[in-house]
Structure formats: C-alpha cells, structure tokens
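Quick one, tokens below:
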C-alpha cells in the first residue's frame, strides 16, 4: 500500500537571516519574509534556500553525502545523453541547481527535466521551470527540511518523481506524485540492485553509493 505524505508538520532545521522565527515576546516586531536578495549574503561555503518565506542556511555536504550524490549522478549519466547517441537519453540532469519556484529558492542535490520540456538548457543562475524529478541526499542537519518543507514545495510545483537517499542508513526511497500527494513506491536498503522510476531502465547498484 502506498504511503501518503502531505508535507505538513513541524520542522527543526535551524534558520538564519531575515527569516528567523520570532521570539515569544509580544512586543517583538513581526517577522519579515526573506527574499532572493537575502541569499546574496550567504557565505559561499554554505547552501542558502528560501522556503515558506524563511531563509535556511545549511553547511556544505559532508564527504559521504557528496560521494553518494556524485556516484548517483554518474550512474544516471546515460539518461543525459543525446537520444541519437549511446544510452537511453531524454533527460537534462544537473547537480545542485538553484530553482526559483513559487517565490521560493530550492537547491536539490540532483534534478532532472525531460528533454521535451527543456529542449535546450538556458545559461542562467537559477531555473524557473519545475523539474520532472528531484533527489535529496539526506544529512542530519537537513533531513527535516528535506522531508517536510521541501517535499511539500515540490508537490505544490508539480514535480512528478522524487528520491530520498540516506547514506547513513544506506537507503533509497522512491516517491511518485499522485493527486497532489506523495506516494512512496518503495524503500530499498543496503547493497541491492533496484530499477526505480523514472529511471527504471537502469539497474542501479545501491552499494556503489555507499562505498568509501
């Protein structure tokens, strides 16, 4: 049976900048919503995102996180090739693209667009076209943000497929958007080989993501 995740609930990820949660004192001024301009003040060794009017600042990924993302991107490379070349083709895949969607700035670890929706990649700092697939590589400092706030944002923008990769637990979770809600199609653990949509043509060896 599919599990439905609505993207609602409390999150515990620390915020920074103009989007900090207000204190409990009633005489405090109302919180100002963070803007794209606030992202410019985020140091280059951090990742800044705007979600729900708040500025979230996360440290750059740790090595195990970065390696899992790199290995996954390399495994999916055949889908990013021209349809007339070797491999299945049909996709544009990017590492850590900045997405400006619905007034938010989101930075997934990987994202992909079908070629028919993005025939040519524009030379821009941020994309405004929602991806067809996103992947978040989880870490303790960002898991709540990824699972609650960002999954809700991706559902709102109509992203059809989503993966959550957890290098610590060595798991891959695969989701499909159905009637505006996330349905979990499966969770895969350890060193198994999986065929996960939308890249089911690939025999993905999960063990390669966890290797150190």
């Amino acid at each position: 049976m599919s599990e439905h995740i609505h993207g609602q609930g409390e999150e515990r990820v620390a915020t920074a900048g103009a989007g900090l949660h207000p204190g409990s004192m009633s005489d405090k001024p109302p919180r100002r919503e963070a803007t794209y301009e606030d992202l410019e003040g985020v140091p280059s060794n951090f990742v800044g995102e705007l979600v729900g009017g708040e500025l979230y600042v996360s440290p750059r990924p740790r090595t195990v996180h970065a390696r899992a993302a790199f290995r996954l991107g390399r495994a999916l490379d055949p889908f990013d090739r021209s349809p007339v070349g070797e491999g299945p083709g049909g996709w544009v895949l990017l590492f850590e693209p900045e997405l400006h969607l619905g007034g938010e700035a989101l930075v997934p670890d990987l994202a992909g667009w079908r070629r028919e929706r993005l025939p040519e990649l524009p030379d821009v700092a941020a994309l405004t076209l929602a991806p067809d697939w996103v992947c978040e590589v989880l870490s303790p400092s960002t898991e709540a943000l990824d699972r609650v706030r960002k999954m809700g944002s991706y559902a709102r923008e109509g992203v059809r497929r989503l993966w959550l990769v957890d290098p610590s637990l060595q798991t891959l979770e695969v989701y499909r958007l159905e009637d505006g809600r996330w349905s979990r199609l499966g969770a895969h653990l350890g060193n198994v080989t999986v065929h996960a949509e939308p890249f089911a043509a690939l025999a993905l060896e999960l063990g390669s993501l966890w290797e150190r």
